[in-house]
Description:
Layout: H1 7-21, H2 29-39, H3 43-46
Amino acid sequence: MKYKITPEIHKLLMNKLKDFRNGKTEVDENTKEIIEKVTGYKYESLYKAD
Length: 50
């Protein structure tokens, strides 16, 4: 299944990546769902805190 990345989705993903790099791994359910649809992976498997 393909998921269309709109400019809004791209901005959301880039902001989440920036947050992750700054140590913030919390995410709301909508963002989590989008990340899972785009990547095809569960959010928890992508963003594991060390």
